[in-house]
Each structure stands twice: as C-alpha cells, then as structure tokens.
Amino acid sequence: MSVLAVVLLVVGLLLTLALLAAVAAGTLARMDGATYPAAITRAATAFLAVLTLAAAATGALASVLR
Q1: Distance (Å, rounded) from C-alpha 54 to C-alpha 47?
Q2: Residue 4: how many CB atoms within 10 A of its CB?
Q3: Strand intervals (E) in 1-66
Q4: pLDDT in the model for residue 1
Q5: What are the angstrom distances between the C-alpha of 7 and each of 11, 13, 14, 58?
Q6: Listed residue (18, 13, 17, 38) closest to 28, CA to CA
Q7: Are the CB atoms for 34 and 42 separated by under 8 Å?
C-alpha cells in the first residue's frame, strides 16, 4: 500500500469522525432546547475541535518520530 493511499484513508477517517462529533453535538444541543443557530455553532465548534486535536496529535507524533 502506498503512502498516499494511507494518508487519504486517514484523512477520510478523520473527517468522518469530525462530522460524527459535529452531528452528535448539534443533536444534543437541540435536545437540550437550544435554537438552530446555537446548535449549528456548537456543532461547528465540535468539528473544529476534533480537527485541531488531530493536528496537535499529528504534530506531536511527527516530532517524536524524527
């Protein structure tokens, strides 16, 4: 398996997990009585938090593996 294929699979998995977290956060916010704009804001925050965490973990792993 080439490196490009592995990178694409990992990126796809990461985006899927980020979208699942965003949907869960938005759904829970609506169930809690939040308005639609507030629920979308919470979903966007969760999506970006997952991506930020993944970027930080990637940076940490890259520095350790060098």
Answers
A1: 11
A2: 8
A3: none
A4: 76
A5: 6, 10, 10, 12
A6: 38
A7: yes
DSSP assigned state of 32? T
H/E stretch holding 30 reads helix 3-31
Report pLDDT digits (tens) over 29-66.
999 999 999 999 999 999 999 999 999 999 998 899 88
What does each C-alpha distance from 17 to 21, 37, 54 come to in angstroms?
6, 22, 10
Closest of 41, 6, 9, 10 to residue 25, by C-alpha: 41
- pTM score: 0.88
